[in-house]
Amino acid sequence: MNSHAIGLYGGSFDPIHNGHLLLARDAMERLNLERVIFLPAKISPHKLDRPPSPPEARLELLEAATSQEPGFEVDPRELWREGPSFTIDTMRAYRAENPDTRLFYFIGDDNLSELHTWKDIEELKTLVQFVVLTRTASPLPMDFPVISRRIEISSTEMRKRIARGASVRYMTPMKVCEKIQTLGLYRNE
Fold first, then answer.
1. Cα angle, residue 116 at apex, residues 83 and 145 outer, rounded to 5°
2. How far apart are CA 153 and CA 170, in angstroms?
């Protein structure tokens, strides 16, 4: 195992689901990563039209989903930063904290078309190796490694199901289902 390689998985995780977890585990195994660190964004600069659930709630869901998973960690630093969460700011900090570590940054295939608009993208490409996580079977033309698994689960679908009173069991870990219920999340979507 390469102890000098970690995966960094940013996103709103609103809520975290088994698709996120399966792809993170696949990436960890295929890239021989020591660990995968989930980085929940306070406010994604690319999702300003839909404010996410409260940071504390999403953090609780992430911790519930990852607490029993070897090699999975949660880093909440972006949740407590002021303003939108820019990946470059977090990756500069990670590079300073881990100068000899290979950093793999996971992005969903849905972010590829906007990647060129990310803040300081050219510098970001020097700090991390992007890895594309995709839940579709379509081939993706790009220069980044791709971790692919056909999974038809999305956070949007889960929020809609919860709002109409349907179950999300088997879409996310049971502990996450319980936290969503306890916290009363997504009922008014």
1. 105
2. 10
Burial of 128 (0-12, 13-18, 19+ CB in 10 A): buried
Coil, strand, or helix at residue 152? coil
Tens of pLDDT along the chain (189 residues) come to: 445 999 999 998 999 999 999 999 999 999 999 999 999 988 766 555 667 789 999 999 999 999 999 999 999 999 998 877 789 999 999 999 999 999 999 998 888 888 999 999 999 999 999 999 987 766 666 678 888 888 889 999 999 999 999 999 999 999 999 999 999 999 986
Omega before 15 within 30 of 0, i.e. cis = yes
| 172 CA to centre of own chain | 14
Sketch out the chain's domains with CATH numbers: 5-153 (3.40.50.620)
Report the alpha-carbon distance of residue 50 to residue 81 in Å, rounded.
19
Buried residues in 30-52 as b, exposed as e (16+ CB within 10 A): ebebeebbbbbbbbbeeeeeeeb
Give the separation between CA 58 and CA 10, rounded to whole angstroms.
Answer: 13
